[in-house]
Amino acid sequence: MLKIQKMLVGAMARLDETMVINLVKQGLQMGINPYVLLEEIRLGTDRVGELYSKGEYFLSDLIMASEIFKDVLALVNQDRVVTAQTLYPTVIFGTVEDDIHDIGKNITTGIMRYNGFDICDLGVDVPGQKFIEAVELYNSRVVCLTGLITEAFDSMKNTIDLLEEAGLRARTTVIIGGLVNESVRKYTGANYWATDCTKVIELCRNILVTNKRIVQSS
Ligand code: B12
């Protein structure tokens, strides 16, 4: 790993905004993939979360972490050309009910749009019924759910149950992301889980182009 990347993790964990921004600028000038830089910053936010859990950081520090992340995203997106033409059917995306974390969602939808996916982003704290309405409206085959707090797992499950009740489950693939794992996938009934936002591109291509669902090995 390059020195710059290691330094990014530490700078984010210390919430040193000036340092984070300078390192990102340097990284971009060196031609490092922006998403590699974002991933290091994400690792730094994990450290922020740990310190918050231990009572060493406070809510204001979580807010600071999200502000730094937003500034970095703005910097990274500054010179990006948005893909004009979308290549695939609409993917429905949202942070589930009771949860307002949206940084990971915004990064993932950004990457997907850049790769030619049309995204209907429902925002944060989205009630299950809104996802159902969007699936019906866009005739979508993929729903992506973000959740970072424990309460989000029930909201994800509820959303998937509602898809079932509406008779839409069989034709809809549900991918969950955020602070999730295989146990959460099983609990919620989702088809896939991912914490690496780049994986979603391959998954969605398989589903939308070849109409193929692969069995997830975690
Ligand atoms: C920043 C932050 C906040 C910000 C959020 C700002 C925002 N606009 O998003 C603010 C300050 C608002 C906040 C509030 C709260 N937070 Co908070 N927060 C965080 C923190 C530090 C970082 C989260 C983050 O943005 N990470 C960076 C992004 C890039 O990572 P990511 O979301 O995981 O996304 C990546 C992947 O998961 C993936 N991805 C994301 N979505 C999807 C979807 C799909 C389909 C796919 C494929 C991939 C994918 O792509 C991304 C890039 O790789 C985490 C700590 C942590 N370890 O995560 C705590 C954390 C999530 N928060 C926590 C808590 C407790 C709270 C509060 C309850 C605090 C409070 N007392 O009020 C509230 C909850 C509010 C609510 N109802 O949602 C806990 C949750 C614990 C739990 N298990 O429930 C954590 C884990 C901190 C901790 N260790 O205690 N928080």
Automatic annotation (TrEMBL):
<feature type="domain" description="B12-binding N-terminal">
    <location>
        <begin position="1"/>
        <end position="88"/>
    </location>
</feature>
<dbReference type="InterPro" id="IPR036594">
    <property type="entry name" value="Meth_synthase_dom"/>
</dbReference>
<feature type="domain" description="B12-binding">
    <location>
        <begin position="88"/>
        <end position="218"/>
    </location>
</feature>
<dbReference type="GO" id="GO:0046872">
    <property type="term" value="F:metal ion binding"/>
</dbReference>
<dbReference type="InterPro" id="IPR050554">
    <property type="entry name" value="Met_Synthase/Corrinoid"/>
</dbReference>
<dbReference type="GO" id="GO:0008705">
    <property type="term" value="F:methionine synthase activity"/>
</dbReference>
<dbReference type="InterPro" id="IPR003759">
    <property type="entry name" value="Cbl-bd_cap"/>
</dbReference>
<dbReference type="GO" id="GO:0031419">
    <property type="term" value="F:cobalamin binding"/>
</dbReference>
<dbReference type="GO" id="GO:0005829">
    <property type="term" value="C:cytosol"/>
</dbReference>
<keyword id="KW-0479">Metal-binding</keyword>
<protein>
    <submittedName>
        <fullName>Methanogenic corrinoid protein MtbC1</fullName>
    </submittedName>
</protein>
<dbReference type="Pfam" id="PF02607">
    <property type="entry name" value="B12-binding_2"/>
</dbReference>
<dbReference type="GO" id="GO:0050667">
    <property type="term" value="P:homocysteine metabolic process"/>
</dbReference>
<dbReference type="GO" id="GO:0046653">
    <property type="term" value="P:tetrahydrofolate metabolic process"/>
</dbReference>
<dbReference type="Pfam" id="PF02310">
    <property type="entry name" value="B12-binding"/>
</dbReference>
<dbReference type="InterPro" id="IPR006158">
    <property type="entry name" value="Cobalamin-bd"/>
</dbReference>
<keyword id="KW-0170">Cobalt</keyword>
<dbReference type="InterPro" id="IPR036724">
    <property type="entry name" value="Cobalamin-bd_sf"/>
</dbReference>
